[in-house]
Design brief:
Structural class: alpha/beta
Number of helices: 20
CATH superfamily of the largest domain: Peptidase M41
CATH class of the largest domain: Mainly Alpha
CATH topology of the largest domain: Methane Monooxygenase Hydroxylase, Chain G, domain 1
Distance between the termini: 56 Å
Length: 638
């Protein structure tokens, strides 16, 4: 049942659904057996049925007949054999028998009678050439047909097996993941422990009249461990685990998706109790819509089959259907109703404590120095999912190995965070004018962020290029966990975003293209304040956006005008402009008041390229930042 390399199993009941094969077994092997048999028969005929004796040319045979050297002749269809009066040398022995090829000679019988030679006719008893003449082509075509049939109906995805499920089946002893291997999602883990109890002791719940949930839907951002949690449930319950993606159902052939759904549930029923995990469920279960262009018939047919199978499936058999998606807003409502995916479990990004627990798991196999503080690293990796933290630990280990170190230290983790947040460091030859502009730009961000209320303290300023077009960045680290943003905090963030552009205006009386990303983000925040958050006194507590934003994916939605009048649109534009103008005025006031300090910080950046937050606050005459506890953000200049 178990194997080191789990492979898809097309028929869990033990039988092979493929049709009969030629020669009763493997076509290639059987074909070679048949050819070997024919070869043995051919060799046997060559040894027993080929006449013995010396082979003579027909001309020499005629001379022997004329000279009276032949006593008896047997005339066949293609050959003539006979006996000589005087033995001749043939190889290493003397023989009186001879053989010659028959030639169309009408006078042969007259000459034989004239010389008194006894002659008679004979039929050819060599049947093998005639047999091979029609048997070999037949065997060839049968062998080719068997080979291609085997290939087409193979379990590894042959053409004839397109209607079978492509689920990878892991036996109960092949899933090594346990709940102890999952951290940072305590609430989801506790919710799924009950699913394990369903699979282990279903009668505990059914005896009271309860019904085991048919489906559990894991929703959350990418990389938070949804697949890992599903495997951990199977590992804890010690049941088989079917794993496949939602995109593996739909093919170019009509009806294939529905057939694969049926085959998947048949396999699951045969291996119950078990878990069927469908990753990226949104690829299969998007909401069915009618449009003038038309709908996707094959995908909708596959979804209908999934709905029918889940609705008619007996939950008492111990089969749990688990799905995972990071786009729950696009799923068909019929999938989410009770009786199908009964439970929806949120697998969100971890908080600072969860990030620390995840880091503890990933550093178990890494040699770290005593100075590594996982709590501090967790605080500096705000917004990181479990996959991001695993990548962080790996990047730090690679950096330490590149420097020929025996342990991974705090500096490697610090550099790894910057690599993941801002991109790879790029050494580019740059003019002094550009370097000075970048230094003032980043100084503007940092000074405004240090003075304005409601923003996180600055941790580091850099004018070293990183990533794709990032010429400098300002790193902020928080002192508290925040789940809501006030209007004052958003106004402060706008001032920080516009601080770089404002610093360029004050220092050089000129602006550059470097603030493109800052302006884009500032406009998005201002528009959200007006259209989504109701933070405009002029427009009131009304949502004018109308777009359904993704919950877990940072995807830009198409800008479609909401259901409001032209007059309202003008007011919205005016309010957005007012909010950004006020933020620009705030940044201008702060940087003008601290112009000398801005010049000092910019010149210092030109010398060191990277400045720590404490040095910045010392120049500004501000107290040191409080200990880092929670989330952080990065200002990236493009």
């Amino acid at each position: 049942m178990s194997s080191n390399n789990p492979t898809p199993r097309s028929n869990p009941k033990g039988g092979d659904k493929r049709g009969p094969l030629p020669f009763g077994g493997r076509p290639g092997l059987s074909l070679w057996y048949g050819l070997a048999l024919l070869l043995v028969l051919g060799l046997a005929q060559m040894y027993w049925f080929v006449p013995a004796g010396k082979t003579l040319p027909y001309s020499e045979f005629k001379e022997l007949v004329k000279s009276g050297g032949v006593t008896e002749v047997f005339v066949g269809d293609t050959a003539i054999r006979g006996t000589l009066k005087t033995p001749v040398q043939s190889g290493n022995r003397q023989t009186s028998d001879f053989t010659t090829t028959r030639v169309d000679d009408p006078k042969l019988t007259e000459e034989l009678e004239a010389r008194g030679v006894k002659y008679s006719g004979e039929t050819n008893n060599r049947w093998l050439p005639e047999l091979l003449g029609w048997l070999l082509p037949l065997l060839f075509f049968v062998g080719i047909w068997g080979f291609f049939f085997r290939r087409m109906s193979g379990a590894e995805g042959g053409v004839m097996s397109f209607a079978r499920s492509k689920a990878k089946v892991f036996a109960d002893d092949e899933v090594k993941v346990r709940f102890d291997d999952v951290a940072g999602v305590d609430e989801a883990r506790e919710e799924l422990r009950e699913v394990v109890e369903f699979l282990k002791t279903p009668k505990k719940y059914t005896n009271l009249g309860g019904r085991i949930p048919k489906g559990v839907l894991l929703v959350g951002p990418p990389g938070t461990g949804k697949t890992l949690l599903a495997r951990a449930v199977a590992g804890e319950a010690h049941v088989p685990f079917f794993s496949l993606s939602g995109s593996e159902f739909v093919e170019m052939f009509v009806g294939v998706g529905a057939a694969r759904i049926r085959d998947l549930f048949q396999q699951a029923e045969a291996k119950a109790p078990c878990i069927v995990f469908i990753d990226e469920l949104d690829a299969l279960g998007k909401a069915r819509v009618q449009s003038p262009v038309g709908s996707h018939e094959e995908r909708e047919q596959t979804l209908n089959q999934l709905l029918a199978e889940m609705d008619g499936f007996d939950s008492r058999k111990g089969v749990i259907i688990m799905g995972a998606t990071n786009r729950p807003e696009v799923l068909d409502p019929a999938l989410l109703r009770p009786g199908r995916f009964d439970r929806q479990v949120l697998v969100d990004k971890p908080d600072v404590k969860g990030r620390e627990d995840i880091l503890k798991i990933h550093v178990k196999g890494v040699k770290t120095s005593a100075g590594v503080d996982l709590k501090l690293i967790a605080a500096r990796t705000a917004g990181f999912a479990g996959a991001d933290l695993a990548n962080l630990v790996n990047e730090a280990a690679l950096l330490a190995a590149r420097a020929d170190k025996t342990e991974v230290g705090p500096m490697e983790f610090e550099n790894a965070i910057e690599r993941l947040v801002a991109g790879l460091e790029r050494k580019r030859v740059m003019s002094e004018k550009d370097r000075e502009t970048i230094a003032y730009h980043e100084t503007g961000h940092a000074v405004v962020a240090s003075v304005v209320e409601g923003t996180y303290p600055v941790h580091k300023i850099s004018i070293v290029g990183r990533g794709f077009g990032v010429l400098g960045y300002t790193l902020h680290l928080p002192t508290e966990e925040r789940y809501l943003s006030t209007r004052r905090q958003l106004q402060g963030e706008l001032a920080v975003l516009l601080g770089g552009r404002t610093a360029e205006e004050i220092a050089f009386g000129e602006i550059t293209t470097g603030a493109q990303n800052d302006l884009l983000r500032a406009t998005d925040i201002a528009r959200a304040m007006v259209c989504e958050f109701g933070m405009s006194d002029e427009l009131g507590l009304i949502n004018y956006d109308g777009n359904k934003r993704p919950k877990f994916l940072d995807i830009a939605m198409p800008q479609e005008r909401g259901l409001y009048s032209e007059q309202t649109a003008l007011k919205i534009d005016a309010e957005i402009n007012r909010i950004i103008t006020e933020a620009h005025a705030t940044a201008t006031r702060i940087l003008t008041e601290r112009r000398e300090q801005v010049d000092t910080i910019a010149k210092r950046l030109l010398d060191v390229e990277v400045m720590e937050g404490d040095e910045l606050r010392t120049i500004l005459g501000l107290p040191k930042a409080e200990p880092v506890l929670a989330e952080g953000t990065v200002e990236v200049r493009q």
